[in-house]
Structure formats: structure tokens, C-alpha cells
Amino acid sequence: MPFFSISGSDFVEMFVGVGASRVRDMFDQAKKQAPCIIFIDELDAVGRHRGGGYGGGNDEREQTLNQLLVEMDGFEGSEGVIVIAATNRPDVLDKALLRPGRFDRQVYVGLPDIRGREQILKVHVRKVPIDVKVDLGVVARGTPGFSGADLANLINEASLFAARANKRIVTMEEFEKARDKIMMGGERRSMVMSEKEKENTAYHEAGHAIIGRLMPEHDPVHKVSIIPRGRALGVTQFLPEEDKYSLSKRQLDSQLCSLFGGRIAEELIHGSDGVTTGASNDIERATQMARNMVSRWGLSDKMGPVLYGEDEAQMPGAGQSNYSEDTAREIDVEVRRTLDECYARAKKLLEDNVDILHAMKDALMEYETIDSDQVDDLMSRRPVRPPHDWRDDDFGGRSDSQESDDADDRDAVGGPAKEH
Prior knowledge:
Elements: E1 3-7, H1 18-33, E2 36-41, H2 44-47, H3 60-73, E3 81-85, H4 114-124, H5 136-141, H6 148-164, H7 172-184, H8 195-214, E4 221-225, E5 234-238, H9 249-270, H10 280-295, H11 325-352, H12 354-367, E6 369-371, H13 372-379, E7 411-413
Parallel strand pairs: 1-2, 2-3, 5-7
Antiparallel strand pairs: 4-5, 4-6
């Protein structure tokens, strides 16, 4: 049957009344073609809460929304016309839009789970010649938090890696490279780093990896690298063994400790005066996580299971804090206490395993990138085996053609960052 597709922003014009006129025209056309389906994409462009206009007078968006409400549920029933809409912001929609008879059935489309990712990958590899040894189930397990578009991009990047290597088929190696590029950023081997800078980066990343391995219920270490990627000088990547939909306090504490691992490693080796700015991103993420634990997730015994502060209002400057200054001061103290406890815990672990820290630094300086097998050897204090794809000519592949000043963001820790 006929299908009409339109974007919510197509209704909005500078002149008042044009959007409402377009809504009337669309429904008039649909009624002539009934039975039919109307699909409105990005509904929040016209469906936001009324009463939030800046001028207080005639608001074009509100006029358009009013007309849409009338057309969907007026005295004249739109017989045979089904209206479907999509939005990423259902929280800002006007309540009248969600009443029975209008958009009364909501379907939440979340990110695919491991089985869904495998099925999506099977669709996208149909046009790509892949090796028979490629296991899409393994690829799906290693891509938690990926959307359908991310998985399509993964196939495309893997195909590009194969094309650059003059391969006729895409192997598991290309899928690994593509995943690393998407999750950690592209390699910047042209970036010039001094030996002292490389050594400091190696200690920093080794600190993250060691604390991550020693903390309970932490995601396993997948790869540690001192090759610059994106804005980071090095990367420690943790991959969860399964999809997670919520996090416990123990898991959050473990993440906080591993975030501090890089800074603590620098402090142990170079002293408090030798700590660099490379941990800026780690500190930012740890502080935000601790504040959420205290003020939003109810994971602080002192503050209790209370929500302190609402989400930001849609109007600039209209946000309100629903707690006193004394409570705000207590929240700050509790956040600091949480961070200090995790910092001290991580420092004690790293001091007890400083020999592993030195050994991992040496391995990173030699191989530049180590994976879980090498980390297992190091944590067991055994001689480190070379990476499976190691070749003697791999080292020193960096040219002196480009300098960069991106040292403020030392690393990117972990896999996909998802808020729970």
C-alpha cells in the first residue's frame, strides 16, 4: 500500500503557519490514498513539549504540533491512515502525542545482543568475499555495544584492509585490524615520540593493564599498545566476555581503580614530580563515574539511594538543583572519598607487583603491542612469548615525518564506554 515518508524538520519553517499547512496537505493526500502508512522521522523536531518557546508569542513549532494532534485525533477520524514515527529523544515529546489514539504504542529499538550482531554481520558479508576460517560468532563476541551501522562499517574497514594488502578475500586478521581501528582509533605510526616519552607511555599503559587484571569482576585485558591511535599516545583495551546491561558496585570500583592505574604507575616510577598530563582523560572519566555512583545510582552508604539533581532542562539556564548547599558539599566529600579509596587500593596493588610493571614496560618497548597471551605470561612472571603476528621487521616502522602536540590525552582505556 502507499507509504509516505517525511522528516520532522521538513515541517519547520521560519514563517508561522507553513508547517501546519504542510501537515494538513500531507494528511489530505494520505486520506485520498487510504489505506496507507505515514512515517515521520525525527519526530522530536516538531513534537517537543509545548510552552518552551523563547518569544512567548506564536511559535511555528507549536502550531505545527497542534495541527498534527488535530489530524491524528480530531472529530474526523483518519480512517485507514496509520502513522508511524521515530525519535532518539522520547523523553522530550509532548505528552499529548503519546496518548491513546495517537502514538500509543512505543517500540524501543536497543543495541543488538551477541546473537543479533552475528545475524547482522551475516547480512553485510553477503557481498564481501570472506575466508572460510572467519568465525562471525567470534567477531560478534568481540564487538559489544556495536550498532548495526557500526557492524556495517566494520565489514567495510576490513575490506579496505584486505584491498590495501592486495588480498582477494577478507581474513580474520583484517577483522581484528578493523575492530581495533573502530574501537581504539587508527594507528599514527608517523608520529615522532622520543624514547623517554615511549617509556613513560609504556609504564602508563602497563599500570592500567595490571590493575585491570588484578581487580575482581573487571573486564579481561584484550590488548595493550604504545602505538599512538587517534589522540591517544597509547591504548589499553578491555573486552567484556559477555554483554552487560547493568554494573555492580564492585565492578564500578574495579573500573575506577584501573582508570587510576596509569597515573599511579607514573608516580611510582618518576615520583610525584614526574607525573604527566597524560592521565587527564582518566581523571575526567573516574570523577564522572564516582559522581554518578553517589548522586544518581545510590551506591553510597552515606548519601543513600536518593537522586540528587535532575537531568538538564531543555531551556538553557532552566536547570534546577533540588538539594541544599550543605548536601552539595556532602556529595563532593563523598565523591572525593570514593576516589581516594580506589586510588589507595590501586596504588597498594601496583606497589606489590612493581616487578611485573617493569617487565610489562620492557615487553611493550620491544613489541609495541601485546595481547592477552603476553599479559598472562607477565602476570605469571614467565618469559614473554612474542605476539602471534610478530615479525622482526615490525619494530621501528615509525618515520620522522610528523610531530604532534596531542600528549595531553595519554590513553584511551577500555572498550566501548556505555553508561548504565
